[in-house]
Design brief:
Chain lengths: ~110, ~120
């Protein structure tokens, strides 16, 4: 079975500090991994994805994520947080073979404090 | 994403009523999806369609039905709404990848429909 865990419901960080939003996954075989962001009253927006190749993936708005196969993790990071980064972040996974469903985590609310 | 539109944006209805949520897209994508979002549960897949003639159940299809009227339109129906179907509903689309592979293509989401069943 495929699943995603986002262990933190809420992450608070001061503006200018680095941020990390954690994600671990469970799939059979190799994964495709995604991060999405949701701003208030908006749909989800794609940030970045890991398909294959380099473990460090760079995405929109200065975000990056590192795929760690041994730890089955795909943590989202940004070197310097902005107040405008405050939003709800979702990690998602699907296996490279088998069912086509994309499985989402429960979301982490990031608050960047001015 | 303005390329994926959902109507209505908000709806309040009563238990037992039939409700239809509509989704249209101008991205030219073949693949469309319906999700519901509940606080603390993330997004869960209700139905998905890979083309006009292809409809598949997702994780939580009971109590829902869908219709793919055209490549650009995918509607979700609640035949007899119940209060635990109160949620935020999202439509999404994705393209067919290289050599027919689709798994690695990101999905594009509509703005959502907030449905309340009293």
């Amino acid at each position: 079975a495929q699943s995603v865990a986002q262990p933190e419901d809420q992450v608070n960080v001061a503006e200018g500090n680095p941020l990390t939003v954690k994600c671990t996954y469970s799939v059979s075989g190799n994964p495709y991994l995604f991060w999405y962001v949701q701003y208030p009253n908006r749909g989800l927006q794609f940030l970045l994805k890991y398909i294959t190749g380099d473990n460090l993936v760079k995405g929109s708005y200065g975000f990056e994520a590192e795929f760690n196969k041994s730890q089955t993790s795909f943590h989202l990071k940004k070197p310097s947080a902005l107040v405008s980064d405050s939003a709800l972040y979702f990690c998602a996974v699907r296996a490279q073979t088998g069912a086509n469903n994309l499985f989402f985590g429960t979301g982490t609310r990031l608050t960047v404090i001015p | 994403d303005a390329d994926v539109t959902q109507t209505p944006r908000n709806r309040i209805t009563k238990t037992g009523k039939r409700i239809m949520l509509e989704c249209s897209q101008t991205k030219g994508h073949d693949r469309m999806y319906w999700y519901r979002q509940d606080p603390g549960l993330g997004l869960r897949l209700i139905y998905y369609s890979f083309d006009v003639k292809d409809i598949n159940k997702g994780e939580i299809s009971d109590g829902y039905s869908v219709s793919r009227q055209a490549q650009a339109k995918f509607s979700l129906s609640l035949e007899s709404a119940i209060p635990n179907q109160t949620a935020l509903y999202f439509c999404a689309t994705s393209s067919v990848g290289l050599a027919g592979g689709t798994a690695y293509n990101e999905q594009f989401f509509g703005p959502g429909t907030r449905l309340t069943v009293l």
